[in-house]
Amino acid sequence: MLMPKKTKFRKSHKPSRGGKATRLVKISFGNFALKSIGAHWVSSRQIEAARRVMSRFTKRGGKIWIRIFPDVPITKKGGEMPMGKGKGGVDHYIANVKPGMIMFEMDGVTPEVAKEAMNLAAYKLPLKCKFVAK
């Protein structure tokens, strides 16, 4: 799973979900991309699941770029924990995805294969996405 090797601070505040994307809005590497329509937190497990389904559908042909990276730590306290006693330990990492962000790019496959692979990947993600081509 994706996670940062090292962070300046172990825990952070929750990121906001509001606003439109100002970065990662153009296709930079491949010819086909998966673009977010909604805003959501995407965990490293969801990114990995989407990557795996795309690479398996294309039979490991072509090239896939993951443009988002889960670098925000999300903490969680244990079950049946009383109030107080500070903030919980880091549970997982998320990427804060906003509307209009390019999440995945693909090249080296036909447009039909790329569209189907991206649609399968979109099922694994918690937000609405659309397929875009250069």
Number of strands: 7
Shape: elongated
Q: Tell me, what is the CATH class of the domain at 32-75 and 90-133?
A: Alpha Beta
User: Helical percent range?
Assistant: 10-25%
Q: Give the name of the CATH superfamily of the domain at 32-75 and 90-133.
A: Ribosomal protein L16/L10
Subunit structure: Part of the 50S ribosomal subunit.
Biased composition (Basic residues): 1-17
Family: Belongs to the universal ribosomal protein uL16 family.
GO biological process, one term: translation
Question: What's the arrangement of secondary structure elements?
Answer:
Blueprint: E1 32-36, E2 40-43, H1 44-57, E3 63-66, E4 72-76, E5 89-97, E6 102-107, H2 111-123, E7 129-133
Antiparallel strand pairs: 1-6, 1-7, 2-5, 3-6, 4-5
Helix pairs in contact: 1-2
Name its key features:
single chain, 134 residues, alpha+beta, Aldehyde Oxidoreductase, domain 3, 2 helices, 7 strands, 20% helix
Structure commentary:
With 134 residues, the protein is an alpha+beta fold. It has 2 helices and 7 strands; from the N terminus they run ββαββββαβ. It has helices at residues 44-57, 111-123, and strands at 32-36, 40-43, 63-66, 72-76, 89-97, 102-107, 129-133.
Summary, kept brief:
By secondary structure, the protein is of the alpha+beta class.
